[in-house]
Amino acid sequence: MNPGTAPIQATYSLTDHHGRKVTEKDFAGRHQLIFFGFTNCGMVCPRALTKLSGVLTGLGPLGERLQPLYITVDPERDTPEAMRTFLEEKHPAFLGLTGTPEECESARAAFKVFAQREANPDRPDDYAVPHSALTYVLDTNGRYVTHFLDITDAERILTRLRNILT
């Protein structure tokens, strides 16, 4: 889905990877950088998180004005503990958000994120979750500012974020 076709509501009520309930309002005063994905993703999510982690490093002290969030599209496997282990090990700047399937679906709908569980015919106990790969930026009041496509290079994201944050 193209987020430009209808307004992004940029709302969520989820549980962070420390077990605390949070909404977009809990980060008032900071911009939010949000990527939807899942910890069992084989390629798109790790690549995006690595790129975004590099962007955060490139921002230096300016990055302290930004709260990076990783919202799951796979709440069945991505418990707070699974999110915490995954992020603290590989992408410690990010706070993972998860919840019930209904809470996660509500967040996806608010951001116009596509995600759909698909069974693995070779392994019945396994599944994939193809999803849209966009990075969203919210302002200090939790309102949608812009988004970046997965193909947007790190330098362009870094430049745009510098402009937004200053």
Binned strand content? 15-25%
Helix segment tally = 4
Q: Helix content range of the residues, please?
A: 25-40%
Largest sheet properties: 7 strands, mixed
- How many strands? 9
What is the general shape?
A: globular
SSE string, helix = H, strand = E? EEEHEHEHEEEEH
Assembly state (oligomeric): single chain
**Would you tell me the overall average pLDDT?**
90
**First-last Cα distance:** 30 Å
Please state the structural category.
alpha+beta
Low-confidence stretches: none
Q: State the strand order across the main sheet.
A: 2-1-5-4-3-8-9
Radius of gyration, taken over Cα atoms and rounded to an integer in Å: 15 Å
Structure report:
With 166 residues, the chain is of the alpha+beta class. The chain is built from 4 helices and 9 strands, in the order E-E-E-H-E-H-E-H-E-E-E-E-H. It has helices at residues 44-59, 80-90, 101-111, 154-165, and strands at residues 13-16, 21-23, 31-37, 66-72, 95-98, 118-119, 127-128, 134-138, 144-149. A 7-stranded mixed sheet has the order 2-1-5-4-3-8-9. A two-stranded antiparallel sheet has the order 6-7. Helix 1 (44-59) packs across helix 4 (154-165). The two termini are 30 Å apart. The model has no long low-confidence stretch (mean pLDDT 90).
Provide the descriptors you would attach to this structure in a database record.
166 residues, 30% helix, two-stranded antiparallel ribbon, single chain, alpha+beta
Brief overview, please?
This protein has 166 residues and is α+β, with helices and mostly antiparallel strands. Helices cover 30% and strands 24% of the residues.
